[in-house]
Structure formats: structure tokens, C-alpha cells
Known about the structure:
By secondary structure, this protein is mostly beta strands. The chain has two domains: 25-210, Sandwich (Immunoglobulin-like); 215-353, Immunoglobulin-like. Helix content is 0%, strand content 35%. Strands 1, 3, 4, 6, 7, 8, 9 and 11 form an eight-stranded antiparallel β-sheet that branches. It has a five-stranded mixed β-sheet with strand order 2-14-13-5-10, with no helix packed on it. Strands 16-17-21-19 form a four-stranded antiparallel β-sheet, with no helix packed on it. The chain is rod-shaped. The chain starts with 24 loop residues before the first strand and ends with a strand. Mean pLDDT is 87; it is low at 1-23. Belongs to the fimbrial protein family. Residues 212-354 form the Fimbrial-type adhesion domain.
Amino acid sequence: MKRFTYRACVMALLPLLPAAAWAGRECNFKSSGTFVLLTGTITPLPITGTVTEPKLLRKNMLAYDGDGIVSGCSTGPDGQNLHARSNLQDVKGLPGVDGVQFKTNIPGIVYNVHMMPNTTSEVDGYLPPQSEWKTVVYMPGEMDSENGKLDGEKWRVYIDIYQDADYRGNNGISRVQPLYTTKLGDYRLGDTSGQPVITLNIEKGSFAIPISAPTCTSAVADVSNSTIDFGDVDINDLGGGRVPAKPFSITLSGCSLVNSVTAKLTTLFASEDGNMMANAWMGQPGYAEGLGVQIRDVNNNTLRPNDLNSSSVINGLEMAGTVKLNYTAELRADGKARKAGPFQATGVFTLSYQ
């Protein structure tokens, strides 16, 4: 009897399935738009003197908080990076400071511009120091997920204010404002071509930040009781100029932001020619006549009392904390008949700062 062995071969038929499809996602701004920056009420800038390196004076001044800049994410080329380009008209690039710096009406006070979505500070892109598109924020892939941090989010625009080494005072200006009305730059989210563009403009009135006025906290004369004592003087010595001039000084301390000081002189009694302070005892019995006190500054300029056009100006103080003003007082004949007697002249210095 022959045995036959039958082997059954079972073939499992497995379906060949295609790999699951993967769709990329991309975030973009939902629409293009042009926006003018505008800040609200701002407290004065904390400037106290010169700096050798850039100093941040104000961070994140809100300049746009509307509904016009909104990002959304959908199926598309994979990407969600933030790109920007700048208008490089008369700008600066400070070392160690983000982005490009735009000038204000006060030399040495500059600002930069950046934007971020409301929901996260991870994305914070500054207008760059170049006019071609530049990626200013590289974002991780999860940013473009549905309902992620960029999907359906509004964006805000901010301004930072810096002081740099070029600052040499306010030059009589009380508020910091943009130097130009101009386009600042553009932003684009996602792909760098063909996507909506956000354009940011600024006007001279977009911000007006108070800046501390130059001042000094005290002014002290170096003579006792602010009195210059000439002692006893021979009335006949006045005609020959033989009475020595008396030097004196006024020291200003606690000065802040002072680049120049202007001094004016006033008195209740002035000589007829207007060059001197006259005797305050005029009309009293036996008062001295025919003389007055003339005040000169360090440059030998006469301070004519009560003359709005007569002043002593000291420039180039480089915002020193202490300033010394040097003057001389001289008894002089006034051209009228001289008579001996008691004499006293009183004047008031009025100082203004820039």
C-alpha cells in the first residue's frame, strides 16, 4: 500500500494598503493691511545723564492693539516662521540691541518696533536692520496646529525706547517724538512669497513721550550771606578804576541733563545807562551818588540788569552734575557827580537750563 503525503499550502492574502497621507500646515496672516502706530499716555522717560552703551528707557510700549492683524493656520506648505523687512531711511544699528533703531527728534534717543501674538511671548519679531526679507522668528512645528498658539490669534505691535552715546541733552525739547512720518517696514508669516503682508507706518505724532527737563536742585554763592563786601572805598578812586573787581561764583549742584546755563540779572534800582545796579538807598539821607556795581561773566561780558537781551550763557557742560558760574563785581563811576555815603546794590540772578 502506497502512502501519499499531502501537504496543504495555505496562502494568506494580505491587502496592500497605501501609507497614510500627511498634510502639511502653514500659518499666515489672514489678510494684508497697513497700520499706523499710535501709543497712549506715557510717563516721562528716566534719563539722568550720558551713557557709553545703549540703555533701555522704556520696554513694550503698546503701539497697535486692534483687530486688523490676525493669523490663521490651515493645510498648506509646512511653515509658520515670521519674516520682516525694514525701511532703512536714516536708521541706526546699536550693538546688543534687537532689530533696527529708528531716530526721534532728540539725537541719541531711538526706538525699535516688534510684534507678537496676544497669547504667547515665544514669538517676538523685531523689524530687522535690512531691507530684504529676513526670518526674524523661527517657530517650532507645533505652532501651526489647529487651535494652536497662532491659529486665529490677534497680534500686537510694541515700541521700545533706547538712549545711546549720542545723547547730549534735550535742546529745549520737552517731548520725544518720531523724527519722520514714514513707512517702518513689513511683516509676513509663513512662506516668504505670495502671502499677506502687514505694513507698519509711523507719524510724528504717533508718540509724544515727556522727557525730564534739565535742572539743578540748588544754587549757592561762594560769598557769605550772598553779599560781596567792598569795605570802605575812597569815592575819588572810582574815576580812575582803582577799585579792584571782586570775583565771586555761583555753584549749581544736583544738576540733571544740563548742557547749558543762561543767567540774567534783575534789580529794583538800575543806573540811567542800564549797565549797572544803582544804590538801593537812593532817597535816604546822605546816600552815596555817582556810582554803581557792574557784573561781568567769565568772558568779560557785562550783565545789564533788567535787560531781556542781556544774558550770560555757558555751553558745552556735557550734563555735569555740578556747574560753577564765575563772575566779577566792580564798583564804577556812572558819569554823574560823585558824593560819598552809604551804598548798597541788590540784584537777583535768574538761571535757566538746557
